[in-house]
Amino acid sequence: MDTLNWVLQFLGRLHPLFVHFPVGLLVVALLLEIRTIGGKRKGLREGINYMVYIGAGFAVFSALFGWFLKTQDEYSGDLVDNHQYTGIATAVLSLITAIILRNALKKATINLKAYRFMLFITVILLTITGHLGANLTHGEDYLTAILPGNKEVYTAKESSVLLSELKGNSELSDLQKDKLSLEVRGLFAHKCYQCHSENKQKGELVLETKRGVFKGGKSGLAVVPGKPEESEIYKRIILSANDKKVMPTKGKLLTPDEIALVKLWIKEGAHWSDKAVKVFPEAELALVKPELPNNIQGITHPIDKLVAIYFDKNNLDWQEVINDRAFIRRAYMDAIGLLPEPSVVKDFINDNNPNKREALVDTLLNDNQNYTQHWLSFWNDLLRNDYYSVGGKKQITHWLYSSLMKNKSYDQLVTELVNPVKGSEGFIKGIKWRGVVNASQRTEMQAAQNIGQSLMGVNVKCASCHNSFISNLTLDQAYGFATIFSDSILELNRCDKPIGKLAKPNFLYPELGSVDGETVKDRLLKLSEVMVQRANGRLYRTIANRFWDRLMGRGIVEPLDEMDNTPWDAMVLDWLSADFIDSGSDLKHLIKRIMTSKVYQLPMVNYKKEEDLKTKYVFKGPVTRRLSAEQFSDAVSQIIAPLYPQVAFNPNGDDIKAIRIWHLEEELGRVVLPEPGKRYFRKSFNVSKETIKKGEVLISVDNSYVLYLNGKKILQNKNWKVVDKIDITSHLKVGKNTIAIIGENEGTIANPAGILFALKIDYASGKSILLKSDKSWVSSRELPEANWVAVEYDDSSWRKVRNYSTRNFKNWGQLLDFTFKPHTEKFARASLVKQHPFMKALGRPSREIVTTSREDQATLLQALELTNGEFFNGILEEGAQSWLKNYGEDSRVIVKNLYQKAFNREPSSEEKTMMLNVLGKNPKQEQLQDVFWAVLMSPEFQFIN
Prior knowledge:
- The protein is of the alpha+beta class.
- The strands form 7 sheets. A 6-stranded antiparallel β-sheet has the order 11-10-13-8-16-17, with no helix packed on it. Strands 12-9-14-15 form a 4-stranded antiparallel β-sheet, with no helix packed on it.
- α16 crosses α17.
- The protein is globular and about 110 Å long.
């Protein structure tokens, strides 16, 4: 019997050798089979057949030997079972595939469809089986462990420190026993779970739970309290590396200090703490404001005082701050996202006020409109808000814009996001994806994930599928958090499989308070109260860190969503966060604190090696930053020509609710896009005898129009991007009035066309009437006879117009100037524009997920869009035409103005000579476009310096 056992054990250990043959043979067979579809490459047929037959044979042997390995080497657990079942299924399917192939080849007419389908399914199952096998062999985080941010955080240093602390004590206190227990359990997690977890129970030993540890395994009791020498686990960890029974069998052996710690734990009674083991470092929730040093000469700003200590520790010297020209440009771009006008720069440089930089920051932050429209992009990214609704998810733009304009406190913002008010519901109401989705993507879990990531700087996504591999969050915690947002109790799903356990509503950090309640509304109220309290230091550290990253180019903690990581200076982060709370969580105060510091005004630092910016980071000053998609777009709109004629959200809108109308065009009973050509439109209205104070018209027609009022031509325009605003007071008359429009759709094929129109009459009495483009207008395809623009013309035979701004024909956004309200904007800010291919190329995210940082590196797509993109070239062409019209053919004036607007400085003599050589004495449009492009592509323009 013993002979048979060792033979089976030997055969079982051949499993890792045999298992690679079906993987290679069947996968290659599928790839080659794809190349034969359609009767191609018939010469591959024989080789493919052999691969399938041999691969099926090895699959059977692999499954058999795997069964030997499991039974003889004492493997158990869900992961082992799943690997075994899928392995057996793979062997069976591969055999069936081989049989189907053999039978198909015997027939006179060969049909390989069934065989190919089976081969495809077999390879899919083979891939799953291989993945489970790799998890068994290398651990479930084998692939993810090397990803950025998932580096190994456990070191033996903690064990050594704790051992030194406990060695000299004759008797351990309860607190010390807890610390010892948690450290040993953490050691088990990092060194032993790979073979002895709930999923993989080698030798029937589980070290993940108290029951498993004290139950032991097949070799006996793993732990005998008080008796290390009789404890199997201790006897194994002290064996030499060459002994086949040594533990751990994979990875590094325990260090002498770690072994001593395990021995001490067992000797002291193997106390098992009721607290959750913290495998990964976890930042303290409590936030204490550090004391500022008073003995630093010449430094007054609180942040600078703390950084001065940091510089001393790292042997760094203070650099000279940037000059006024560089500061005003940096401050403008950071605070409101715009370039300063040349005259403003000149006045600032000539200002002798010693506090002018702080005064400038105050001025910029008090520019509520530009501040809001700039920072809106940051919040849209963070709260995954965009200008559309998908899968039941609503946008929160109106609420968000209003909140930023009012400078609501961060506490109020968080409260209204977590416990929604009217307009903010879209944040916690996730996307209902079509079809079947896994449990971790249900809307309640999305709410938990979004709040965790965006507001608390913690990754809940990993823990929503299984206990997290990158933090201490557990599946129980993730589902408890998600249950807060659910109107029913959620059942836990591990890797999308129900485990028969119901979640209990709980916040991720229950020590902050209970969130239990009878209804969702009750729980949301409690959650909002629990989150916005000073004890929740994590909330305030997270937003302070995000703003520091935004203004300084790199966070104090990196990555931004992993706030348990060690900050480069904890005192700076804690003081900044506590000061933010003391200000009433005033976001503008937080920005001002950073922007008025000396460290903000230091020269930009360019870290050439990525590791110097990531893992070996030493703070020396702000990090060089590329302009965001919105900043670049707005800068081009300021200097060259407006990029975007329409916005998705118009904060100045009158709520006119006019629609784009056009003549109804149909084919085979279906509404279609309008064909090119002219169409004719009429609308009559009555004016009362009251005194008219003012009458105004707003009109924009895609592509062009001629406007008549009461038979008289008023205006015409061929640029649909422009909204014409016309005073028609003198053209109105008491009684019936008639508007007539010739609208022309240009092009060679059917394309979108539409009239956007509004007429407002204000009477001296205070009464107003509003007439707008709607479906009450009438139109004609053919040129009418007689005087069709006259009031008396009979249009009763004309057709009602069609609304071409809805459903499949919605091709326009809102024109910024389509308002009767006075406003100062000269172009549409990019933050108000829906996702555009140009901004997408420049790195603006889709916002279907939370985005807390954007890629700062230039991409191939950006290079292509900026060099050969039709859209960008069209803007340069439009801008060149405008500049030549405004500045004539004076090349010197053009170069001077361009440099002042783009760089806020005069061109050097070398730059001036080079540009004048390109433009010549009589600059042409193409030459000016080239000059524009060269300036916009320069690093000085593209980076915040």
